[in-house]
Design goal:
The complex is a heterodimer.
Chain A: H1 4-34, H2 50-53, H3 61-69, H4 72-103, H5 109-119, H6 124-137, H7 144-152, H8 155-167, H9 170-178, H10 183-194, H11 196-212, H12 215-220, H13 229-234, H14 244-277
Helix pairs in contact in A: 1-14, 3-14, 4-7, 4-8, 4-11, 5-8, 8-11, 8-14, 11-14
Chain B: H1 4-40, E1 44-51, H2 55-69, E2 73-80, H3 85-94, E3 102-106, H4 110-115, E4 119-120, H5 128-131, H6 137-143, E5 144-145, E6 148-149, E7 152-153, E8 159-164, H7 165-170, H8 186-195, E9 209-213, H9 219-228, H10 248-262, H11 273-278, E10 282-288, H12 291-297, E11 302-305, E12 322-327, H13 333-344, H14 347-356, H15 363-371, H16 381-392, H17 403-418, H18 423-439
Parallel strand pairs in B: 1-2, 1-3, 9-10
Antiparallel strand pairs in B: 3-12, 4-12, 5-6, 7-12, 8-10, 8-11
Classes of the chains: A mainly alpha, B alpha/beta.
Organism (chain B): Cohnella silvisoli
Family (chain B): Belongs to the bacterial solute-binding protein 1 family.
Pfam family, one (chain B): SBP_bac_1
């Protein structure tokens, strides 16, 4: 008995290390390549040796160039501004809409909610052209409005909040009404503080979706001062060559920022999602 | 804790309102200048859609000299990354927006844009006698659909065989030639490549390879194989692939491609062939006129030779590049046509070639390359070779409104072949899919 246990354990860890390697090595390659001179990046890819993953000549030039030549400060500011504004407006609008769907009775409620569900089932590519035409008519092309406004009302966020609100006992609201609270007071002082996990999940979802959004910002902005991170990344692939080290450097930063935000909040994220799954 | 959330919301509201104001301030100067431009009436501003960084590659120089010659017209550039350029165009042109006048379009997509009504015919602005003998034939062919000129060629392209001088020297092999009479055959290329494919560190795996295509499995480069055998990729109306893309000669071309990876194994199984060549892991590479700059920066000791052909068959080289068209919804077609004329037929063609270095489609500029002693020596002799190929051996890609559909299936079939599927099986399988896709353009 005693002799089989270590063998089992070794196999167990070996397997895990293998899986970790498979997942981490591409990221490691990106990280390593971002500190290599451009012409060295593919020097050590075949055959794969320790040199493939350990740089022998380290340079931070790619990172310096990002800020010097590619106006990375503006790009980062734009992306964060767009993402944060979408999160804030998205939470307010999404939760208010969901509150009315969950706790008010009005004509055509189910139909309207059906439309809300539809919005996140239709792929973006289908609505790209009409949406573009609308933004063009509003004269919003090449502005922050074009980047933020279409993303604010998110069907999935409304759905998340609604599921949570449905589980809240009506007695809670009724007693507040009896105490003389207005709807606004109930919403801001009673309902919203109760659904912090949902707000965090929804906020993260909106943040990530804006952080990752690419096609839409590409379509509606064209000047450098509205560039966001994903569009800027695609600028490194030119017609006939690719600036690998700068692309990897920006990709590393593009990955790190959401991770820094996600990690401390992830336990709420899971809680939020599981909460909404429970129905009476 | 309970009080903090409403406070947070309030803060959120304020920040976003501030952000909103800021974006408004940022936008207003632009829109203001646009409206005054229109109100003034005297000046016409035309907008050209093009690729990222093309301003730096020479378009700004062309524009400033154009504006000097035509003081009432201003040209504004809107630039998008190459990787997603076609999707972007599809949405912008599909929305029938009137914001764009000039559009840079890729040669093979002109017929598709014509069928969709994105482009205005140029015939009424540029008379055939103006350009008839001024552009190379393959570019005129690519720019014409149903007998009408839809877009004028900005430049064209060709492919040559680059080789690594050091690797050839080490193995004592005579390198390929840049003399049209001594053009290497594909058989010679594979022979030399076999000697140049070897293992450097003794682990039993080859890490230097003999030969590679820069655009792995892409129709642009790979079509030169079937073109050399005289195979037509599509029917004359561009709507039928069966019997063409799987003809015997096409399968023969596919077999050659298959052998590179599976029989002689002289090609590496990577699509980063340019990077392999840059780092000395590849002895020969089919590449474009844009490569020498990249290779020189990577300090590769390289030579330039002619694109290979099949023994006993004709030489055929890839060609085609960017054209310039006028958007059907543009309200300033007259001014836009003036810029097209300047860039493709006038002084602009020279400036564009000098700054950008893409192979010109303009015959006058090509003739100047043939005469100028500047192009006698390496590496500038590349343009002499390219000029010869553009005028003599260039075969343009098939003209079909379904080019993108056909090309992506072509890519799929040749990727399958590269991964080990029998060429006949891969091509027979793909033509039914191609025909189904092409049917919608009937």
């Amino acid at each position: 008995m005693a002799s089989t246990k270590p063998i089992k354990e070794i196999a167990y860890y070996a397997l895990h290390i293998l899986i970790v390697l498979a997942i981490v090595s591409p990221l490691l390659f990106a990280l390593v390549s971002s500190v290599r001179p451009l012409n060295d990046i593919f020097k050590y890819v075949s055959p794969v040796t320790w040199r493939t993953f350990i740089p022998t000549e380290i340079t931070l030039q790619a990172y310096v160039d990002l800020f010097k030549e590619w106006a990375f400060g503006t790009i980062l500011f734009n992306t964060l501004l767009v993402a944060v504004a979408t999160v804030l407006f998205g939470i307010i609008i999404g939760s208010m809409a969901a509150f009315s769907f969950a706790k008010f009775e009005f004509k055509g409620k189910s139909l309207l909610f059906g439309f809300v569900l539809l919005t996140f089932m239709i792929p973006f590519e289908v609505i790209a052209i009409p949406l573009y035409r609308l933004i063009d008519q509003l004269n919003w092309i090449d502005s922050y409005y074009a980047l933020i406004v279409p993303a604010v009302a998110n069907g999935l966020v409304i759905f998340l909040y609604r599921q949570f609100f449905m589980d809240l006992p009506n007695a809670l609201i009724e007693s507040a009404l009896l105490d003389g609270a207005r709807w606004w007071k109930i919403y801001t002082a009673i309902i919203m503080p109760l659904c912090k996990p949902v707000s965090i999940s929804a906020g993260l979802m909106l943040f990530i979706s804006q952080w990752e959004s690419f096609l839409w910002p590409l379509l509606v902005t064209h000047s450098q001062k509205f560039r966001v991170i994903q569009v800027a990344l695609s600028d490194f692939t030119t017609e006939h060559s690719t600036l690998w080290n700068e692309m990897f450097a920006m990709a590393v930063i593009a990955v790190i920022i959401p991770i820094l935000i996600l990690l401390p909040l992830q336990r709420y994220f899971v809680q939020g999602v599981t909460n909404t799954g429970i129905k009476e | 804790m309970k009080k903090s959330l409403p406070l947070l919301l309030l803060l959120a509201l304020i920040t976003t309102i501030l952000a909103g104001c800021q974006s408004k301030n940022d936008v207003s100067p632009d829109t203001a200048s646009e409206t005054t431009g229109q109100n003034a009436g005297k000046e016409t501003e035309i907008t050209m859609v093009t690729l990222s960084d093309y301003d730096k590659y020479g378009l700004n120089d062309v524009i400033s000299s154009f504006e000097k010659a035509n003081p009432t017209i201003k040209v504004k550039l809107e630039m998008y990354p190459f990787n997603n350029y076609f999707e972007t165009l599809e949405v912008k042109l599909g929305s029938r927006s009137t914001d764009y006048d000039l559009i840079m379009v890729d040669g093979p997509l002109i017929s598709n844009y014509t069928v969709k009504g994105y482009l205005a015919p140029l015939d009424s602005y540029l008379k055939p006698e103006q350009w008839n003998s001024k552009w190379v034939d393959s570019s005129v062919k690519a720019g014409t659909y149903n007998g009408k000129l839809m877009a004028a060629p900005m430049d064209t392209s060709t492919q040559v065989l680059y080789y690594n001088k050091d690797l050839f020297e080490q193995k004592g092999i005579t390198p390929p030639s840049s003399d049209p009479d001594q053009r290497w055959t594909w058989e010679q290329v594979v022979d030399a490549a076999a000697k140049l494919t070897y293992d450097t560190n003794g682990d039993g795996q080859n890490d230097v390879f003999g030969f590679g295509f820069e655009q792995v499995s892409r129709a642009y480069q790979i079509l030169s194989l079937s073109d050399s055998l005289g195979a037509k990729p599509l029917s004359d109306d561009g709507l039928v692939a069966t019997g063409y893309t799987n003809s015997d000669k096409f399968v023969q071309a596919g077999k050659f491609y298959y052998d590179l990876f599976h029989t002689s194994k002289v090609s590496p199984k990577t699509d980063q062939t340019q990077e392999y060549f840059k780092t000395g892991k590849l002895a020969m590479l089919i590449g474009g006129t844009w490569d020498p700059k990249i290779f020189a920066e990577a300090k590769v000791n390289f030579g330039i030779a002619l694109h290979p052909y099949f023994a006993g068959q004709k030489a055929a080289t890839p060609t085609g590049s960017w054209h310039l068209g006028i958007s059907e919804t543009s309200g300033k077609k007259e001014a836009a046509a003036k810029f097209i004329e300047y860039l493709t037929l006038g002084e602009g063609a020279k400036i564009w070639f000098e700054k950008d270095g893409s192979l010109p489609a303009n015959v006058d500029v090509l003739n100047a390359i043939d005469q100028d002693p500047k192009y006698d020596q390496f590496p500038n002799n590349l343009y002499r070779i390219a000029s010869y190929e553009a005028k003599n051996t260039a075969v343009s890609r098939p003209v079909t409104p379904g080019y993108l559909d056909w090309e992506s299936l072509y890519f799929k079939a040749f990727e399958d072949i590269r991964n080990g599927i029998e060429p006949k099986q891969a091509l027979d399988g793909i033509v039914t899919q191609m025909d189904r896709q092409l049917k919608k353009y009937e």
